[in-house]
Write a structure and sequence with these properties.
Number of helices: 16
Number of strands: 3
CATH architecture of the largest domain: Orthogonal Bundle
Radius of gyration: 26 Å
Strand content: under 5%
Structural class: mainly alpha
CATH superfamily of the largest domain: Intergrase catalytic core
Largest sheet: 3 strands, antiparallel
Number of domains: 2
Shape: elongated
Strand order of the largest sheet: 1-2-3
Distance between the termini: 64 Å
């Protein structure tokens, strides 16, 4: 059943391979937990230890429901029995025990626990569609509160300094440096995700219209406008690619290619970002493609862009995911307000 669900996520929901592997890991961990036969909480646990009553083999090997079972999957009676056992494995009691196990035994934080609960919830929703479950048991399990962290971003002046210092690289630098510069230019210039950058082909680019066609999460396509300066940089980079002996210049070829002519991969992109931003003054802490995405969103919001436009640019499915950037902007506005307001100095001297 796990494999059927993962296939569904990949082929129907069009989840990325990385996301599918995350789901696989969580479901396999839950299956291993159930295989123990009881919740393995320590005797000194501060939380209640719930006993498990389940048959772990059913989670992986359950047959389709009765209306699908006539095609050689076994009798309807056997299928009903299997479904009953599967419902017991995914009972509220068992899921609560698993949550306790994650927190008390494995020491996982709220973010990881909530991820596991979300994966199990998605699996249960799938089983509801298949006619196995009548309701989603995960909805009855209280989840730990997760502290909201504001997105990290780099200061605009730091990014301007980087691009100013490296503006001649695309025309005169070595290919490795040109590629690194292009990776930074594309990530910060468009706000695309690392996976979206890697999946870009030459056919994704329409320089005549100055747009980039991006395939995002859920296989959704969106068009991102390109600044004229970025279009010029892309042309310089493509000229550098064409000069490589092993370059692939077909429409389906990767837009950004490794020195060996292959497609970029996650570690390559991460290393390029770290190497590029390491020497830049004013940039500290985490250096990653996603922080560049956060930085662009924050700068656009500060520059007066509306949330809906930023949502479309970033490929967010809901406005709620974009609204988190308003907190960064409000904090920056408060800092400017306190330092520039004519009464700020009086407040410093006289208090409230």
């Amino acid at each position: 059943m796990i494999e059927r669900y993962l296939t569904y996520l990949s082929s129907v929901r069009r989840y990325s391979p990385r996301t599918v592997e995350i789901y696989r890991g969580v479901l396999e961990d839950y299956s291993s937990f159930v295989s123990a036969g009881e919740a393995p909480c320590s005797k000194g646990s501060a939380r209640q230890n719930f006993a498990l009553r389940a048959h772990p083999s059913q989670l992986d090997g359950w047959a389709p429901p009765v209306h699908e079972a006539t095609g050689g999957h076994g009798s309807a009676g056997q299928t009903l029995a299997d479904a009953a056992q599967l419902r017991e494995i995914l009972s509220v009691q068992t899921i609560r025990s698993y949550e306790v196990y994650l927190m008390d035994e494995k020491g996982e934080g709220a973010k990881t626990v909530n991820l596991h609960m979300s994966v199990l919830s998605g699996f249960c929703k799938y089983l509801m569609r298949e006619g196995v479950l009548e309701s989603n048991p995960v909805r009855l399990v209280a989840r730990p509160r997760q502290e909201k962290r504001l997105p990290v971003f780099y200061r605009d002046e730091s990014m301007r300094a980087y691009f100013e210092q490296t503006k001649g690289v695309l025309e005169y630098g070595k290919y490795e440096d040109q590629l690194q510069r292009m990776i930074l230019g594309m990530l910060f210039g468009t706000g695309i995700r690392r996976g979206e950058l890697i999946s870009l082909n030459r056919s994704s680019l329409d320089l005549s219209r100055q747009v980039l066609r991006v395939r995002g999460k859920g296989d959704k396509m969106r068009e991102i406008p390109l600044l004229p300066s970025l279009c010029e940089e892309i042309l310089l980079y493509l000229h550098a690619v064409d000069s490589l002996k092993c370059a692939d210049t077909t429409p389906d070829a990767p837009l950004l290619q490794t020195p060996g002519g292959g497609r970029l991969y996650p570690v390559y992109v991460d290393r390029a970002v770290k190497a590029a931003l390491g020497p830049v003054g004013g940039i500290s802490g985490r250096k990653s493609p996603h922080v560049l995405r956060h930085t662009l969103a924050t700068e656009l919001l500060d520059g007066g862009a509306d949330l809906n436009s930023i949502k479309e640019l970033l490929g967010h499915s809901s406005l709620a995911a974009t609204q988190v950037y308003t907190h960064n902007s409000i904090e920056r506005l408060q800092q400017v307000y306190k330092s520039a307001h004519p009464r700020a100095k009086n407040d410093d001297h006289h208090g409230d």
